[in-house]
Specification:
Shape: flat
Helix content: 40-55%
Distance between the termini: 71 Å
Largest sheet: 9 strands, antiparallel
Length: 685
């Protein structure tokens, strides 16, 4: 035999694993290096892109500060000279000087009565004046050209059909806001094909009454011209949009800002037939943070795409989207990375083939073990017989199989021996468990018999209580009717003893009726239906009962919850809602009876129902400030009552309910010296 054939599995695995590590680690190390290098290049390119975007944002902020400055300047002047608003010639002259001095497109004033004055920078730096006033005829817009010195010339156009009040966004948005603000982008009333955004300031008199609105417009077509100049000779595209995707400005003059076909609506970014605009639209819709540039390719050219919110500090919800051309080094790095990833995949495939060859060699000697395991499985399937057979295992391996497989064979043999011993032990345990189950079944049958007997007695008692109630009701009604008739008779010769006897008959009938109701409650406790419930709902039901049935004592009773239950957390238990309500109501009735029997005192009667958390239990505590329990009160004696006419059934019902819930009833002294009753229930959840 050659030395190679006697190699152990460990030696073969070491050689194979070493070769695989060299191939895979080398390939992926090269990929990791390239990734790091490309990341550095992309970060450098992203920094360059961010610098350009920062410059554009600063320039845009500077451009928007001019209208804000002019509005503050004009508002201060009008505040100092209110008569400016009455003299459109002087006000127009002031606006003309500002158009000449500042890079703005339009300055206007709208009065509360619908009057309007506006100056527009036209082509070739000429200025047009628009006026809609009483002196020229309200409802029409008269257009004047101005001389190089700002003097009005003859009217060039009269536009009829102007609205009686200002309805455009620049006026309405400002009046609604009541403070200086940027308007939404709107179309001009006299030129609907022109869209602009304006910064406007409301004017008020000394009494706080609105005088009008002054504003400075920025036409979005000219804003696109500015953005194109700010973008310069950079390759790519920059667009300024609103949050909903509608265009405000673009660095590409060929992109239409408004829809064609006679519509005055502005174009949306997703509607543009422009490859870079489509990529920017996807970046804008991408959820999450898109502030970091994303590298994408188009026509063999790489672009860094970035979405930057802008204008929040100015009250604008605009977004600046840029697609900047990446340098050649970024493009080349991406190509190199693709080639290296392909090489790494090939190396990984080769290592998988090498592993497959080694696995086949290992599986050859394992075939004997596989056959033996099938035989073992058949033996295990027969273990359900009354007399399980001893598990047999036999597997012959030669020395060429490797020391590891020989050791595995010995381990399997040891496992079989242990399994046979376990089978014998389980057989003995099975006999013990069978005997235990037989004993438990006998106990369960006895308990079921007792339960059936108890249910039978409960049903019979319920029938008896029903039969008692029918003649008892007739007896009570007859006694009450006789009392009423005797009191209505004119003569007073009826013996007092007869009235007293009828009263006693009525009182005792009522007592028997109450006792019958309590017997029904006891029978209700014999049929417990446990469900998951919130004790807060039980206390709410008790409160409703008190307000409806214990009206004379409802002002004495209050409820309190722990702070941890003031939110949405519940006091959960497994319980029967009706039984628990009856139990709490019985405790409240006992407290009310005790307070009614005690002599009048300066301290007002008080009953407090509280819900407390006590370790693994919830406690319903009922405290009163009555006379308390007598010193000789036997708290655990059934049907005992300290009241002269009491039956003791109330506390018996409460104890029965607690027995049905694995709970506990305890009686003691409240902090005010009265009686404290506590219902302790196991907590769930």
């Amino acid at each position: 035999m050659s030395q190679h054939s006697t190699l152990s599995l460990g030696q073969r695995l070491v050689r194979s694993t070493g070769l695989q590590l060299i191939l895979v680690a080398g390939s992926f190390s090269l990929v990791t290096y390239t990734l790091g290098r490309n990341s550095g290049i992309q970060q450098s390119e992203a920094h360059r892109t961010n610098l350009s975007i920062t410059q554009i944002r600063e320039q845009l902020s500077g451009k928007l500060r001019v209208p804000m400055f002019l509005n503050d300047l004009n508002a201060s002047a009008i505040d100092a000279q209110p008569d400016l608003l009455k003299n459109f010639d002087t006000l127009g002259r002031r606006f003309w000087h500002q158009l000449k001095a500042f890079p703005v497109d339009y300055i206007n004033y709208g009065a509360r009565d619908g009057s309007f004055l506006g100056l527009e920078r036209g082509t070739d730096d000429d200025v047009l004046l628009y006026e809609d006033s009483t002196r020229l005829g309200r409802g029409q817009l008269t257009v004047f050209s101005l001389s190089p010195r700002g003097k009005r010339l003859e009217p060039t156009e009269i536009i009829p059909g102007m609205s009686a009040t200002h309805e455009e966004a620049w006026y309405v948005d400002t009046v609604d806001a009541g403070r200086p603000t940027w308007s939404s982008i709107y179309a001009w009333e006299d030129q609907p094909d022109i869209h602009s955004v304006s910064y406007n300031t409301p004017l008020f008199d000394g009494d706080g009454q609105l005088l009008g609105v002054i504003g400075v417009d920025m036409v979005i077509n000219q804003l696109s011209t500015w953005l194109s100049q700010a973008w310069g000779k950079r390759s790519g595209l920059a667009v300024l949009i609103e949050a909903d995707g509608r265009l405000i400005a673009s660095s590409d003059p060929s992109i239409p800002l408004t829809k064609t076909g006679g519509s005055n609506e502005r174009s949306s970014l997703g509607e543009l037939d422009h490859p870079l605009a489509e990529m920017l639209h996807r970046i804008h819709q991408k959820p999450g943070d898109s502030a970091q540039p994303a590298l994408q390719r188009h026509n063999e050219e790489a672009f860094l795409l970035q979405s930057t919110p802008w204008g929040g500090d100015h009250g604008l919800n605009w977004v600046l989207l840029t697609a900047s051309s990446a340098n050649e080094e970024v493009t080349q790095g991406s190509r190199t990375l693709s080639l290296e990833i392909g090489a790494a995949v090939l190396a990984l495939g080769f290592t998988l083939l090498l592993n497959r060859s080694l696995i086949n060699r290992i599986l050859q000697p394992l075939s004997a073990l596989r056959q033996a395991s099938r035989s073992t499985e058949q033996q295990i399937n027969l273990l359900g017989d009354d007399q399980p057979q001893t598990l047999q295992y036999r597997c012959e391996l030669d020395q060429k199989s490797g020391q590891e497989l020989l050791d595995l064979n010995m381990a399997v043999q040891s496992m079989v021996n242990a399994f046979n011993q376990l089978t014998r032990n389980l057989s003995a345990k099975e006999q013990q468990i069978t005997q235990m189950f037989q004993k438990q079944r006998l106990r369960d049958e006895q308990a079921l018999t007792q339960m059936n007997q108890r249910l039978k007695v409960s049903l019979e008692a319920a029938a008896i209580a029903h039969e008692i109630n029918q003649p008892l009701s007739i007896l009570r009604l007859t006694a009450q009717r006789l009392q009423h008739q005797l009191r209505q008779r004119a003569n007073g010769d009826d013996p007092v003893e007869l009235l007293e006897a009828l009263q006693i008959l009525d009182d005792q009938s009522s007592r028997i009726a109450r006792t019958t109701d309590q017997i029904k409650a006891i029978l209700r406790n014999a049929n417990t239906n446990l469900t998951r419930l919130d004790l807060r709902d039980v206390l709410n039901s008790v409160q409703l009962y008190v307000n409806s049935n214990l009206i004379e004592a409802s002002s004495w009773i209050s409820a309190a919850l722990p702070s941890e239950l003031k939110g949405h957390q519940g006091a959960w238990v497994d319980g029967d809602a009706v039984q628990l309500q009856i139990a709490v109501i019985n405790l409240v009735k006992n407290a009310v009876d005790a307070l009614l029997l005690q002599p009048s005192a300066t301290e007002a009667p008080e009953i407090v129902i509280r819900l407390e958390r006590r370790q693994q239990n919830w406690a319903i505590v009922v405290d009163d400030n009555g006379p308390g329990l007598p010193d000789d009160h036997p708290g655990d004696v059934p049907l005992y009552s300290s009241k002269p006419s009491g039956s003791g059934l109330g506390l018996f019902i409460v104890r029965s309910a607690m027995d049905s819930h694995n709970g506990e009833l305890t009686l003691g002294i409240s902090p005010s010296g009265g009686t404290r009753a506590v219902l302790l229930l196991p907590r769930q959840g």
